[in-house]
Amino acid sequence: MKVGKYDIPNIRLHPTLFEATKTLYEKFGSEEAPDQLTVANLLGHKTDKSGAFISKLADLRAYGLITSRGLKVTDLGKKLTYDPSDEERNNALKEALLNIPLWKELYSRFGRTLPTSNFWVELTKITGLEAPEAKRIEEIVRNAYLADFQYLKEEKKPEGEGKGMSPEDKGDTSTAISSSVERQASIVQNLIKEGAYDIAKNFIDFIKAKKEGASKEEG
């Protein structure tokens, strides 16, 4: 599907293209398929000349799941379907999605979600579409994007990363410090009221007097 200066796949990655990649990998492994008709039949098409099959091949290549030439599952396709690690499968999924140039651009701006209102405005800026056309297809593009990214998990951040204080956190810290100072001042005031200051001063004067007396005796 043409979206301004970009193309996006007509078929979504999950479940159709994922299952197609898995089927091809299970059948041919790392070998190339013998011909297009064999692949077409394997994927449920009667002929390799049908528009649906040709579109499926084009979309598999767009996501990077089969080689650009020939009919062979790529390393990315293998990782996406059979990697034992959840993290590696998620990385493979992200790589496949970002092989779509428009998806890569949108992801760099908005992440896994998209603006809920006036998304067409962003489409005009990114794709070069005129406003009426962007508004007409905004829901088509949004639904395709969200369908593709719904299985992508947020990447785990290293321990301690991303724990910088937000303005709200800093405000909370300032409030806490101010509150602590006020509590300490209140405690000091209460002690003064109760005569603690005089007691402490008298005790210090007593110690000083004892030291001075001891020094005179030694002299």
Portion of residues within helices: 55-70%
Q: Order of strands across the biggest sheet? A: 1-2
Major sheet summary line: 2 strands, antiparallel
> What is the domain total for the residues?
2
The total beta strand count reads 2
Characteristics:
single chain, elongated, 2 domains, mainly alpha, two-stranded antiparallel ribbon, 219 residues
Notes on the structure:
The chain is mainly α and 219 residues long. The protein folds into two domains: 148 residues, no CATH class; 52 residues. The protein is 66% helix and 2% strand. It has a two-stranded antiparallel sheet. About 6% of the residues have low confidence.
Give a quick rundown of the structure.
The protein is mostly helical.
Topology:
Blueprint: E1 2-3, E2 6-7, H1 13-28, H2 36-42, H3 51-62, H4 75-82, H5 86-98, H6 101-110, H7 119-127, H8 131-149, H9 167-193, H10 196-218
Antiparallel strand pairs: 1-2
